[in-house]
Specification:
Layout: H1 25-37, H2 43-54
Helix pairs in contact: 1-2
């Protein structure tokens, strides 16, 4: 089993699938149409799904790394 990732910012998060094999969102949509629905999607259908998924794109969450104090000779070290 594979965890299904959220669709938010899906247009910005290539590669797709658990293997990272597909780098194009349109190709991923077409592949999922045939594997999940058992039928080939038309270019128009793929375009409409891609347009919908693009509406889920928003600002990326900000990742702020902490600023750590510098180490010194007197800095305590973890015990192994």
């Amino acid at each position: 089993m594979f965890r299904a990732p959220p669709l938010r910012n899906i247009a910005l998060t290539a590669p797709y699938f658990h293997s990272g094999k597909v780098w194009d969102l349109r190709q991923a949509i077409a592949t999922m149409g045939s594997s999940q629905l058992g039928q080939a999607l038309t270019d128009d259908e793929v375009g409409k799904i891609e347009a919908f998924l693009s509406t889920l794109t928003g600002p990326q969450p900000a990742v702020t790394l902490p600023v750590l104090p510098p180490s010194a000779a007197t800095t305590r070290q973890p015990k192994p």
